[in-house]
Amino acid sequence: MPIRRPAAALAGRTAGWLSRLTRRGGGTAVSGLVTSALDPTFVPDTLRQLHSTITITGTNGKTTTTAALCALARAAGQPVLTNPTGSNLERGLAAALLPHVNWIGKVRHATHLRAILELDEWAFASLAPTIRPRVAVFLNLFRDQLDRYGEVDRTAAAWQEAIDRLDPDATVVANADDPAVVAVARNHRGPVLYFGADVTGSSTTPDAWADVRRCPLCDGRLDWNRVVYAHLGSYRCLSCHFHRPKPDVRITDFQPGGLTGSSYRLITPDSDGYIQVKLPGLYNAYNLAAAVAGAQAAGIPTADAKDTLETFQPAFGRAETIQAPGTTITLLLVKNPTGANQTLDLLRSEPEPLDTLVLLNDGVADGEDVSWIWDVEFERLAPRRLLVGGRRAEDLALRLKYADVVPTVDQLLVCPGIGPALDAALASEPGSQSRRLIVLATYTAMLDLRAVCTRRGWVDPYWRAAA
């Protein structure tokens, strides 16, 4: 063990403590950043001490899937180490490991501890060969943060290189409905477990903004007999053998319940039953199916999966409810066209128009290029009142003007920033009876809004809420 490891761990803990003391954050990244800078092998060396490691990556749904898989493991009586705040770069993994490391750099109870870790798409590509996960879960691959990732085929190529270097006895868990994911997962030398949704699609053509339209293997034309959303569905190539594999874990009979949740039939190799969950939307059904498939691949018993999933609460900022004085806030994370359009579909299922606040930031974690908002079908939005905020509020207002969401531009209230926009949204119109506010926010905007709510005493800091 490097002599510097104890010093690196101490320095990281001190940095995290100072971050919390000065209220600059929860120390969920800076502690790991300091530790990894002083000891570059801290993360892979520490993870190798554990019973095993499961990684979860993909464009959308990482935090929710990771939390659900952790819940399944804990329900089975297995101790878990995870990064619940969504800090999913190497620094986030280091920060998650630090509380479990003693003063000489050893993990306490390591042989009984399983790591279940969310990983950024590119962090997985760089870290997977060194941390050597026993199970690697791939959720989906959509266009996101073009200024950082580029197009989806670039990320797919990076994933393929990482999968080629996984141990042959590692298990890959992949979304059968995503052609881009299947194309890389099928080349794994070891076992592959698939999950998917056998639900009735409204179309046989991918959405106009979908990221995959041609065969990832031969560039031939893909033919869909059912599209669930975006490019997810049942497909086959007209020029080669490539097609959707049969899911081992699948969703059928999906029944949406608006923002309050959904119900569906969940079929696995050893169970078949209906569940009613508190997570809204079909996209969250995919996340829970992925968690169950990941548990099965890792040998985690899923006999109590129904009870665990039905009591599972949304992760912070992902359909989270915050109670403000006189108003219930529902916070929905939107960060790319696919996720945003699914959220807008979810809102359309509500029985009446709702007051809506949309927040757009352009931080590094959001993607500094906000052109993606022009691929969001804001025309689906039908709010009672509409307000926009965030650092790029004016760009968002322009997009909403062209979407013709409100009858006149004067009815679109623009409040650059987060706190002022929230205050404006919470202010009731004369005679208004509605005390419910829907907030659609990009990642850093969501964290900024939660910080405002935390200072006002309405919610715990995200690093506590996620624990």
Explained architecture:
This protein has 16 helices and 17 strands. The two termini are 30 Å apart. The chain folds into 2 domains: 43-89 and 110-311, Mur-like, catalytic domain (UDP-N-acetylmuramoyl-L-alanine:D-glutamate ligase, 3-Layer(aba) Sandwich); 318-465, Mur ligase, C-terminal domain (Protein-Tyrosine Phosphatase, Chain A, Alpha-Beta Complex), CATH 3.90.190.20. By secondary structure, the protein is an alpha/beta fold. Helix 2 (30-38) crosses helix 5, helix 6 packs parallel to helix 8 (152-164) and helix 8 runs parallel beside helix 9. Helices cover 35% and strands 21% of the residues. The longest helix is centred in the N-terminal third of the chain and has 18 residues, at 4-21.
